[in-house]
Amino acid sequence: MGNSMTETVKFPSGVCGDALTEVLRAGAQRLLAEAVRIEAEAWVAARADQVDAQGHRQVVRNGYLPERHVMTGIGMLPIRQPRVEDRRPADQREAFDRKILPPYLRRTQSLDEAIPWMYLYGISTNDMSEPLESLLGPAAKGVSASTVSRLVAAWQKQYADWNKRSLADKRYVYIWADGIYFNIRMEDNRACILVLLGATETGEKEILAITDGYRESEQSWTGLLLDVKSRGLTMAPKLAIGDGALGFWMALEKIYPNTRQQRCWVHKAANVVSKLPDRLGKEANHRLRQIWMAATKADANKAFDMFIETYQDKYSSAVECLKKDRERLLTFYDFPAKHWTHIRTSNPIESMFSTVRLRHNKTRNNASRVACLAMVYKLGQSAQRNFQRLNGAEQMKDVVVGIIYEDGIKKSAARNSFAHNI
Q1: Residue 366: what pLDDT?
Q2: Is residue 228 packed enough to be buried (19+ CB in 10 Å), middle (13-18) or exposed (0-12)?
Q3: d(CA 73, CA 16)
Q4: E strands within 65-118?
Q5: From CA 78, how far away is CA 36, in angstroms rounded?
């Protein structure tokens, strides 16, 4: 058309984005100021009964502290905190416990969590200020190479302490195992990070162990399992979930021989379908889903047999890939049905590191194993805060004492509760 009714309006580069950011920053500053004010007033109000002989209140607001700046995900925010004065005798005074904005906070937690991601992606400490500045504005220049180096050193110390902690008071009913590959070059060819995730008797998921290994070898997994056992994890998990990598399962059978095994259906389906022509991928995935989503073990076995019959003649390698783990793929039917969504796959670990897993491009950095482990530890701790409790957590106690489940339904009283312990 010759004359369009719609006219494109062009703004100067960066104006809209910067204006919006400023609006957001101003709003955040007001909200933060209001939050710390309310916190201070509530703390003072809770001590309104503290008065002297003349009836004067002893815990009061007294102006503001000097302005400070906190670096956040939308840039640097200036903030003035209320000053709280406690006029009681020295032995009776309380320090105002600031929860929202602790005295030494200089960066928000989300920003501290961005730094290990950047480090793992191969951005050196010297180069980190540039991408941070693009996200947070010029104030991010305060995150210098020395600042990042100090953070990395602190995280390494935290990881070292965490990796030596006692596990004597822990009982993990389920464990998930996986090997995570990052696009970094660590020394000694230790390219694989071994991760164990556990579910407690109350259904809470926790990161159990993180270490490095030689391509998920039996030796590496044996070392990890012996380590957690030596630190107090003597009660064998009831079920272990992982992919088909032989290293873990061979190690498990040596260290916790009575722990039952569940192969990950996501990994197995991917391996099976990879041995079929692309044109059969959708159909095969549908048939595989009919197996692991079946309501009963009998129905799952019928769907299993149907898959074999369908593809055996032309695609025997795909069938053999599925058949070799038949029993271990269906173990979950002997556990509470509410737990099935959690124990059929190793997704709880996969989702923790999905954005950096299986990347093949090498970075220019040659990260040390200590630094890499510290970064993975920090990322794992960050993810753990968002872990959801297992569905049917109240049934974890049934699994612990050995109550028999058939097709996900409770069938009998407990077996010997010590039968599966080491």
Answers
A1: 45
A2: buried
A3: 18
A4: 68-72, 75-79, 82-86
A5: 13
| Model pTM score | 0.68
Burial of residue 384, with CB atoms counted within 10 A of its CB: 0-12 exposed, 13-18 middle, 19 or more buried = middle
* Residues whose CB is less than 8 angstroms from the CB of residue 34 and which lie 6 or more positions away in sequence, other chains included: none
Give the H or E element holding residue 266: helix 265-273
Domains by residue range for the chain, with CATH = 28-48+56-106 (no CATH), 107-264+358-390 (3.30.420.40), 272-344+392-414 (no CATH)
**Cα atoms found within 13 Å of the Cα of residue 130, Cβ hemisphere only:** 5
| pLDDT score of 75 | 58
The two tokens of residue 48 are 């309104």
Residue with tokens 């309006």: 9
Look at residue 30 and give its three-state secondary structure. Answer: helix
Query: How many CB atoms lie under 10 A from the CB of residue 120?
Result: 24
CB atoms within 10 A of CB 329: 24
> Any alpha helices (H) in 231-263, and if so which ranges?
246-255
Q: Which residues contact 221 (CB under 8 A, 6 or more apart)?
A: 177, 194, 213, 247, 248, 250, 251, 252
Q: What stretches in the chain show pLDDT beneath 50?
A: 1-17, 74, 109, 121-123, 131, 134-136, 139, 355-356, 358-366, 417-422
Q: Which of 341, 342, 350 is nearest to 383 (CA)?
A: 350
Query: What is the model's pLDDT at position 145?
Result: 59
Q: Cα(352)–Cα(357) distance, rounded to whole angstroms?
A: 9
pLDDT in tens, 105-124: 555 545 555 555 555 544 45
Site of tokens 């049905």: 337
Q: Which DSSP helix (H) or strand (E) runs through 268? A: helix 265-273
- Euclidean distance between CA atoms 226 and 419, whole angstroms: 20
From 395, 383, 394, select the one nearest 205 (Cα to Cα): 383
The per-residue pLDDT for 13 is 41
Residue 271 vs residues 268, 284, 317, 321: alpha-carbon distances, Å = 5, 11, 10, 7
CB 210 within 8 A of CB 195: yes
